[in-house]
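Attaching the record inline, Q. Sequence:
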Amino acid sequence: NIIQEWDNTEHILKSLDDSDLKAGEISFEKGKLDEAKEYFEKVLKKYPNHPEAINNLGVIEFFKNNLDDAILLFNKALEEDDHYFDALINKANCLKNKGDFLTAINEYNNVLHIDTNNLDALTSLQECCSLKIKDIKTSKEINSNSFEIAQNQTKDNSSIHEHNPFKNNLRNKKRCIYTF
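Structure, as predicted:
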C-alpha cells in the first residue's frame, strides 16, 4: 500500500513537471522567453537535475545571445545525462555560432555516434569543415554521406529532417523545445 501511494505521488509530481515543461514550450513558441524560463525554473525547483529543463534554459540563453551561459547549461544537462541528444546537438550548434569550429566538429561527431543519420548534424559538420576550417576533402565526404542518407530516408518513406528542428521535436514528441 505504501509503495502504491509512493508510485501515485511520483506520477502526480511527474505529470506536474510535464505540464510545466509543456507550458514552457508553449511560451517559448509564442516568443515569451521570460515566461518560458519561469516554467523551466519551476521544474528545477522540484528537480534540480532535470536535464530537459536545464537544456531548455540553455536554448533560451542562446536566443538571448548569451552563448557562454548557454554552453554552461548544455554542459550541466549533459552531466545529468551524458547521452542526452538534444543537449549534445544544442551545444555543438552553440559552439559553431560562437566560432569555435574545431570544438563544434568534435561535438557533432559525438552527436553522430548516437544518431549516424542525423542530417542536421551532418550539414553543420560539413559547414564547419568546408566554410570555416577549409577542409574540403572531409566536407565532400560528409556531403556524400548526407546525400546517401537523404536518399535512403526517401526510399523508406521516412521524412527527411526539415531545417526547422523545433517542428521535428514536436512531431517526434520530444521534450526539448528547440535544437538550432
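The mean pLDDT is 76. The chain is about 75% helix and 0% strand.

More tomorrow.
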